[in-house]
Structures are given as structure tokens and as C-alpha cells.
Amino acid sequence: MLLLFKPRDQKYIGEGNLPFGSYDDTSEWLPITRYLEQGAAEFPEKNMFRVADRDGNLINTQTYRETNEWANRVANGFIKDYGVRKGDRVGIYMLNSSEYVISIIAIHKAGAVQVPINKDEKGDRLAYIINYSEMKALVVDPESIPMLDEIAKNLDKLEYVFVTGDPNAVPESAGGVKALPFSVFDEYSSGNPGVDVKVSDVERCMFTSGTTGMPKGVSRNHGGVILTVRGYIQQHGVRSGDVLMSVLTLGHANAQVMCLFTAIGAGATAVFYPKFSASNFWKWAAECEATCVNMLGAVSEYLWAAEPGEWDKRHRVRMVLSGPAPKQLKEFQERFNTRVIDGYGSTEMGMALWNDPEDTRPGGSGYPMEGYYLELRDPENTSRVMRPFWDPGESPRPPDDAKGLLFIKPLIPHTTLNEYFKDERRTREAFDDDGFFNSDDLFARGIDGRYYFQGRFSRIRVSGENVDPIAVQDAANMYEGIHEAIVVGIRLPDISDDEIKLNVTLEKGAEFDPVEFSKWMAERNPVFMVPRFIEIYENGFPMTASQKIKVAEIKEITEKTWDRNKVGLKFRAR
Hints:
seven-stranded mixed sheet; six-stranded mixed sheet; globular; alpha/beta
């Protein structure tokens, strides 16, 4: 398929060029590591990526040549002595680091499938991902070892754990599995492994919140990387002189595809920080000379709420991708002297919608990207395609009959969800007979051609994470004394993310302490699954005449609703 690379206004284009072109001919696409290898040959001493420590100090810089050679050594080690074959799964479980970047690339080069694990997973969920994915090896940082040791009795397929950091401090085993220092790969050949990897091969198995209490594995191919890289380069005007910065975890597709892989695809430089800091964000951006950054969820609101500082405009950030865009878009752009555009994507589909930087109208998630066909369907009858006539210029709020579920049809093979790993039923259910994927998100489409996000149909988004309410309910129902749990998402004013409200009924005579329950939840689950609000219904949930729960009523915050924030109970992510 031949695509058409959109022209951009010059002020939205970075310095330099596109050494590998604009990826318009899909028949010529290659896995992203092939472009890294070309870059290592054509501009070997150019910085490929940089990594900061937890205090924001840039501590490691790797050129294109160094990145390629280091990844080659790891890939060759995987292949030669640790039995990693094409299609095998290799996991990564740690904070952002140089070894994380190299592991991703090395897994690609070995023809294996990366399984990035959210750094905050723990307990049964962590064991489930490791076992269910049937990963052969796992790369971790030293801080991850206690999490593995806690589930040692549950690990039954993992063969090797490679530990970063001081090689002399690596234990003999981690989680009951043979442990080796990551430095063992230093002795292997730095030559390209030469494994025949195609864009049609599986690139990742990324686990997201599941509908039965455990995460589900989203399997994607290498072609999906190139499609999203192409879109990011086009919409942000990325060129070889750009520096792409991310404060998001490399366990997410955003940091991987729209920072690391896009930097490779444009011959640019990527910079990674281990965590987000509202007070240091613009200072870090200035220090690493970032020109493009990404934000998710409420990050932009946190930046807006931070005290004005000397670094607010002392940076080179030309473009910001924020999903969603800050509510005070015009003021945000003026305060921080940058251009913010919104978009919409998912782990399964990639970036299906993107705003154009030249389009300064507020609101909206943008226009369909090449490679996708979009429809809005009636939530009550998904076989009915909706064609509402709504003018956002006349009525900023769409009428209810203009809101529909977004269905997405991929038009280019090997670019979106390949399968839900080892789950034929969910894979079949994900698409209708015509190949459309149900996004589970509500949108309205204006006569201006743009799509406007209206909310999630069943999922909740907390701290940038998609959270399945069923998963939280299943976890809560395991707590002694809870008879029934129902989870809902609550959107507070001027905040883009949701808050979780847990509604419970108790067993007869049971006592319930919300503080102790919250601590119990945090010990067993990622902190983003711990509810902020809890309400106990002593006489049962409010019901309609037809015996259905009054959802609108249990979504209300009342005087009986316990608020974790008001008692100062906080949990830190790793």
C-alpha cells in the first residue's frame, strides 16, 4: 500500500532530515532494528539514547554504534547459550534504564517476543504474567528480586533471570530461578545476529488489565511499530536533529514506540527518565535539550498546577503529545511556550486518531490516521452504524444521540492486534465479522471530521493506566468480610483521569476498616488498582424496579463515602 506523508507547517518541523524516508511504501517496511543497524553504519557517533537516574541526572549516553553493538552482544548471548529462539518470549521487569532499552532491541534482534511487565505488578498478577506468557528468560533490576522471591513457589516455566547493576551483588537465584548478572552478555560478539525477522513477525506480548481479574496479553507485530512511528514523525514533524524525551515507563507502548522507536526511525535521539516529576519536568527537558515530549492522563494537569518556575519557558520543546490535551490548552501553551496536540490510541490498535498541529481549534482527539477506517456504533446495538449530524461550532457539547462506540478497522496487515495471547475466544470477540475492533470508548464525530472523546464505556483510566473494574472487584471480593463489591469510575472536575470508587456490602456481622483494606489491596496489587473512594451499603445496593443496580447513584460521592486522600493514606509506585 502507498501512503501519503502529510506536509507540515515549517514551524512544526524539527531540524535535520529523515535518513530512512517517510515510510510511505508499506511493502518496503523493515523491523525497526534494521534502521538502527543502518544508523550505526551511516552516523555511528550520533547519540542514540540517554538515560537519567532517579534524581534526573543524565548518567548514561549511547551512540548508534554503541547501542547496536551492545544489543547485538545481548541478542547473540540469548541465542548461543540461553536457548532463545525465534518466537520465544523474553520478559523485562524494571525501571527505565540503559539495560531496559538494550533488552528491548536485543529481543527484537534475536527474533524473540518482548514481554514488558508493568513495574508495579506484584504477587499473583506478576506470577500469572510470567507463567502464562511462558517466557524463557526475564531481565530485572536488583529492586525486582524481592518481588520475584515472594512468588518463587508459583514460578514453573522461567529458566533464567538476568539482573542488572553490580554483578557481584547478584544472588544465585531469583524467585527460585537461576540468576545471572546482565554483564554476562559483555563477552559475546557485537556483530548483527542476522536472524530473519519480518514486519509480519510478532514483536511484543504486552499485558494489560483483563476482564477476568488477570491481565490479558496483547500480541502485536513489527509492522505496528512502523505504522505508529510513521504517524508520530508526520504529526510532530520529527527529524534527525530532534531529541525525544519520555518520563513514562518503557513497560508501556508510548515510551517504546513514540520515543525509542521513533527516535531510531528518524535518526534522532531518545532520552528516558525513570519517573515523572512536575517540579522538575521542564528543567529536565531543558537539560537534555528535548524538542518533543509525550504526556498521558493527568500529567498535563499536574504540570499546570505546579508553581510557576524559571524553567517554564527555558527549554526547546517544540511539540507535546498529550492524551488528553490540557483543559486550559491556550493558557498551557502560552505558559510553557510549546504546541500541544491530542490524539487517541490503544495497546491493541496503536494511534488511530491524531490532531494536526496547524489545527488550533480546542477540543477533539483528531482525524483518522492512514491505515485505519473508523465507525461509530450504537452502544445498545453495535450492529447499527451511527451517522449523527452534529456541528461542534454551534453546540460544544454533542447530544446523547451523537455519542457512539468507536469501532476501528485496520487496513494494513500486521499493524494492529494480532491476537490476545493464547485466548482464541477473546481474539474472536475483539473483532466483528467485518474485521472491526470494538475500542470500548465513546466518541462523537463532528461535521468538521474530527472525533471527540466522550468517555470510557466500561473501563477506567487511573494514573495513565487502563484499569478493568472487574479486576478490582475480583480482588476486593477476596477480602474477608466483603459480601459483594462493585467498582465504578468517577471523573472529578478538571481532572482527565478517573478515580476508583469501591461500593461494598458486608457479610452479616463483619467489620470493615477502609484503611486496613487499602493497605491489603496495595500489598497484592498495583497501586493504581487501590480505590480512592469506598462506600459501604448496609442495606444493600440501591436497585431499580427491575432489580438492576442504580449505577448513577453508586457513582455519587456522599457524606458516607470514605476518601483515602482525606485521611492522608498514600501508596508509592515502585
